[in-house]
Amino acid sequence: MSVEVPRNFRLLNELEKGEKGLSDGNVSYGLDDADDILMSSWICTIIGPSNTPHEGRIYTLKLYCDKDFPKKPPTLRFTSRINIGCVNQQNGVVEPSKFSLLSQWSQTTSFETLLLELRNEMSSPQNRKLPQPPEGSTF
Question: Hey, which of 11, 72, 78, 129 would disulfide with 68, CB 3.0 to 4.6 Å?
Fold first, then answer.
């Protein structure tokens, strides 16, 4: 039997980890608006991996947790233009059907894990070959 962690406890834990910057430094995240008492809207960054077309780029994403989080995954949307297979090229949304951490969602998956896996996607052989939009362009 698994214990269900209440939404606000889970989001407070994510906020604490994000504010302390406990990741490897290649991803970061925090509340988009400090006054968001529901902790729904987050701003995230990913630094492009070395030896890829993404090297030296900083990508910005929005992460949104609706009322059903963590039972249901958050929505991820790049605001920085990027061309990788799991991102809708019209609106920047990370397509759950093309990103396994969303399609096979686990309530224990952290924001950091989601962002690091997106960073890994940038390094995958199929994504390394894709032409990238000009640096600084947005959706």
Answer: 72
